[in-house]
Write a structure and sequence with these properties.
The chain has 286 residues and is of the alpha/beta class. The chain is built from 13 helices and nine strands. It has a domain of 160 residues: NAD(P)-binding Rossmann-like Domain (Rossmann fold), CATH 3.40.50. This is NAD(P)H-binding protein.
Length: 286
């Protein structure tokens, strides 16, 4: 069995490959990447690197040749990724893969979040294709909250637009371990939909309180209107579309759309998910 990971040079992709290499030979793993030059470290591990550009379908068809299972890691190109994902789905179907696993978003079928639209469209396209598939609906990454760590430490305030909404977040390594577990499972994963989230939920005020506890500094949580929070994100250099989507995601999280207490993720990886406090401690130490 050979496994292909798209977006393999990304933060999640590299972790999935590391998780696979704990169990399978490097020769059985293919890193499907847009720019092979950026995957020299993966090649050094014995992983085969193949060009796979979402915007060039011919490269996807070549990348999936001889592959049994594909992990389609969602593109970061918000606004155009539905088309990109459809190209990957078509390539997987043409290759006759045994399983296509896709990294979607938590509660993709019910959340009103803008970020979910392309994910839901991709899930629908996968279902319509007939390709045997498993859907990995990843919850929020704890690391997302750390993007504003330095400003929070400097100004004594963490900003957001989630009110008292709870986040059941986990670290990328937890989600990577889950993806590897699904790919490596001896049981058929076709038709499975996994709602993946951290074991414990918290509000952004509680996150700020944890920062305060670990740093000894008073760090408050300032809840902003969605438009104001979008302005903060755009001012920090995020592209307009991404700033809009992230501010919207925070706003809809007010209604616990990023909370899930099913503990499917910890069962799938056979261990507890990484606590938020440990992620904060690692970030402060780094």
């Amino acid at each position: 069995m050979r496994y292909a990971i798209t977006g393999a040079t990304g933060q999640l992709g590299r972790l999935v490959i590391d998780a696979l290499l704990e169990t399978v030979p490097a020769a059985d793993v293919v890193a499907a990447v847009r720019d092979p030059a950026k995957a020299s470290d993966l090649a050094a591990k014995g992983v085969e690197v193949r060009e796979a550009d979402y915007d060039r379908p011919d490269t996807l068809r070549t990348a999936f040749e001889g592959i049994g299972k594909v992990l389609l890691i969602s593109s970061s190109a918000v606004g155009v990724r539905e088309k990109q994902h459809r190209a990957a789905i078509d390539a997987a179907k043409a290759a006759g893969v045994e399983l296509l696993a896709y990294t979607s978003i938590l509660h993709a079928d019910t959340t009103p979040a803008k970020l979910a639209r392309e994910h839901k469209a991709t899930e629908d396209a996968i279902a319509a294709s007939g390709v045997p598939a498993a859907i990995l609906r990843n919850g929020w990454y704890t690391e997302n909250h750390l993007m504003g760590l330095q400003p929070a430490l400097e100004h004594g305030a963490m900003v957001g637009s989630a009110g008292e909404g709870r986040f059941s977040s986990a670290v990328r390594a937890d989600y990577a371990a889950a993806a590897a577990a699904v790919l490596l499972s001896a049981e058929s994963q076709a038709g499975q939909v996994y709602e993946l989230a951290g074991d414990d939920g918290y509000t952004l005020a509680e996150f700020a309180a944890e920062l305060s506890r670990q740093t000894g500094k008073e760090i408050a949580y300032r809840d902003l209107p969605e438009a104001d929070y979008k302005g903060v994100l755009a001012g920090a250099g995020l592209p307009e579309a991404l700033a809009d989507a992230l501010a919207d995601e925070d706003n809809v999280a007010r209604n616990d759309t990023l909370f899930d207490d099913g503990r499917t993720l910890s069962r799938l990886i056979d261990r507890p998910t990484t606590p938020m406090r440990e992620t904060v401690a690692a970030a402060l130490a780094g």
